[in-house]
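pinning this so it doesn't scroll away 📌
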Amino acid sequence: TGGDTGGDTGGDTGGDTGGDTGSTATAEFSEAFGGSTIGEGDAFTFPTGAEAWAGFANMNADMYPLSFSKAGSISFKGSVADGGDVDVYFRLEFKPHPEVDPSFDSDTITVSGSDVKTYTVAVPSQATNTFSSLIMYVVTQDKAVTVSNVIVASDTADTGGDTGGDTGGDTGGD
């Protein structure tokens, strides 16, 4: 007299709750080269008389290699003590000099004013290229720019997955 009075009342209530969350690393521009200078409080200067190629190297080797199969970004906090404007840009290189190619130069960013602001520059997809050298260049000569908290957002990492499953079942009987 019974029969199957139930049915499948469950179903897949889970799903992919993870996904691409991104990978970030903090750069440490602690090495000046070519006559550039680093002053107190992360004040970077490209003085008159410095080499044309003078800049600042990231010394946080733990962040390498960087890859950008998808678009990424470089963001930082910046200010100019005297309230003026200073132009900077970033360069990604395959390896430190002399093995620099392939390389990528970011757009120039103008840091303006004495109030600390957050700046971000896009890094378009670099296909399968990898980078193990990050350099910051100050374009404006003889003017200190404060740059801190440089964060590189590179390829994303899939940290999620299917965290659900079939939580129901056949609740009926015969």
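📌 and the second one:
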Amino acid sequence: CTLVTPPLERRRDKWLLHCYKGLKRLEEKLEGFSVEGLFQDEAFVTAFVRASRVAVADHQKEKLKALRNAVLNSASSIDLDENRQLMFLGLIDRMTELHLRVLVFLSNPRKPLREMGVGDEGGTGKRSLRPHLLKYCSIPEHDPHDLRMAIADLQSSWLVLDDVYGEKASVAFL
């Protein structure tokens, strides 16, 4: 127990501080927003605790960033459907950084393509996205199995629509 406790406490403390800083920034930006008042909202507390459980159990930076964004969106969105929010947190829990990279790529392929030095002709309708997606996700072209599994997961969750390996792919957001 003494071996496990310090790393868990370190993760928890880092997560709480990261969220607190984000919430304080929201408090500065949004009129009438109060961090203290936020923790009186049972729906927010539920979302925060669920996100925190996942965050303490994970080390992947992109996943932690997605969880923090979910917490901050929950805090700043008054009309956010509670069920949809909890479903989204459950999806983040099941995802890996690979899943998140696929979503980032497909949500706006032009941006990662530009970052990779590929012009507009690569993946915006004239050629397949597949080789670029493999490169963006750091997956060898000869072994795309992990990418296929991640895409299948995202499609079964209705987050990715259409044929990812073909010309047309899109991301559906909750």
